[in-house]
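As a representative case, we now present a protein record of this kind.
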Amino acid sequence: MALLQWVVATLLTITGVSAQSIAHINGDRFLSALNGQNVSNVTGIVTAKGPDGIWLRSVNPGQDKRVSDGLYVYGSALAKNTSISVGDVIVVDGKVNEYRSSKDYLYLTELASPKVVAVLEHGKDVNPIVIGTKGLCPPTGQYSGLDKGDVFAVPNNQSLISVENPQLEPELYGLDFWESLMGELVTIENPRAVGRPNQYGDTWVVGDWSTTGDNDRTGLTVSPGDGNPEAIIIGSPLDGSDNPTDTRLGDHLETITGVVYQVFGFYTILPLTNISVVQSLAPAVPPPTSLVSDGTCAGVTVGSYNIENFYAGDTAHVEAIAKHIVEYLRTPDLVAVQEIQDDNGETDDGTVDADQTLDALVAAIRDFSNSTGVSYNYTYISPLNDESGGAPGGNIRVAYLYRADVLQLRNPAEKGNATTANEVLPGPELRYNPGYVDPGNAAWTDSRKPLAAAWELVGGGGGGKGRPLFTVNVHWTSKGGSSSLHGDARPPVNGGVGTRQMQAEVTASFIATLLAADPSARVAALGDFNEFAFAAPVADFARLSGLADLDAAAGIAPEERYTYLYDMNSQELDHVFVSPALAASLKGFEHVHVNTWVEYDGMASDHDPSVAMFDIC
């Protein structure tokens, strides 16, 4: 009998209590069958120490891939005990506990109230499990069997992992995979960043394993049913060092070793020390758009940009957005902008107008455009006070910038207001130009109303007075209230999806009326839809309105359709949809990744802008 086995057997004979193995505590499900029970003589090798506890690994790991041989032992006194070190074999008593800080999170199985019974050995080798070799690779498609094949399905929140507690299938489902490694010391070789770090330096990565949705910047783009479960977030280092906060999408990192854990609703690896960037991709920023207006009907450019809580009082933000419009969007003839705040920003004093805010942007664009001195006009409708959502007091709304030397509002005899609904008149023409789409509809409660407008070329040349260009600038309700893709609810909660569905139907109905009046009308709906193109609200909008997704019309590869980084995913919340006639006149469409490619401090907005060019002669 080996010395360690003899010591353990002797110890158990003396105490007269059967040992519980780490594997037995974890079991092959998300929740331990021993939850709430006191256990004795749990033996394991110390693999890591943190500020509030330590991690153990079974002395003799099992062969069941569903069962983790790692365990978190919670106790700050134990963590600070300098007589216990990594590589020690210890025996502890304690209570099995399932912990989470929010009902929306998955539980973490831990051993609480620990008492060290014995230290059996020192200096034991601790070798991390390498993810990405020997077939130990995370699944790339599905998160959980409870999602029924679609993590983005509607209706969502149909079951809870904490209630169902399914048996783990780590070769099929991402959450099961990471749960099967919970508490283990692991290594990721050749990691790369697939997201931007938060203010604490927590960074989403993938390692040397298969991935799906790879875009040219080596991020992971979401696709129908696939939210990229193969990614994992790297959290706070256990040695107290700090992760960098300036890593970028696609950065190559040094090998990462740490323990699998649960933090704020996500499976996480807590690294032994801070992550380090080996190489960043070039170029650091994208090139400007290649779509440049020639000032005629043969090359009209239209842009869309959510400029994130924009108001005149933030001079640095004003200059950054103006620089983007001039240098990267190359001053499109028409720009649909979203998240325009009122003139005093988030001061909630009843101010709703935004002339000073937009004047500041127009002036900054003119200054940045140097010798050409590009001059924009703007149009918008003020919302009712505190009824458009967004930052309290900000009264965000959508607006249009348009080059006064190229475009003008068509028949702008009457402008709508916050409560007047636009109408489609014979011609077709708009009753108000611009005017809100059905602002009294309950779909827009505490949300932005779409702004419909009709445009023509200055002077009526080319495709001018006889053939207007209709646009609908949208900013649907946010995803606030969503649960994480790693959360308890399955499929995860998609916050606001019901409201966006209503908004989709109202917006589509207005556009369908335009196309019913003239099937050859040139119509574009553009802006921040706050939803994926394949999700029900946007897919239904396209079907009901009769418009086509411009990404598809332009032949943009699905992996390159992204305007936003969130957690591990490159994703597209900003879209342009066009009528058949406008699709036929398309000359190009580009997403300009001026914000998703840069570090956090380099962002002017959390969204990327997009630019399209049309021949409307």
Observations:
- The longest strand covers residues 108-121.
- Residues 3-121 form a domain with the OB fold (Dihydrolipoamide Acetyltransferase, E2P) fold (CATH 2.40.50.200).
- Confidence is low (pLDDT under 50) at residues 1-18.
- The chain has three domains: 3-121, 128-284, 297-614.
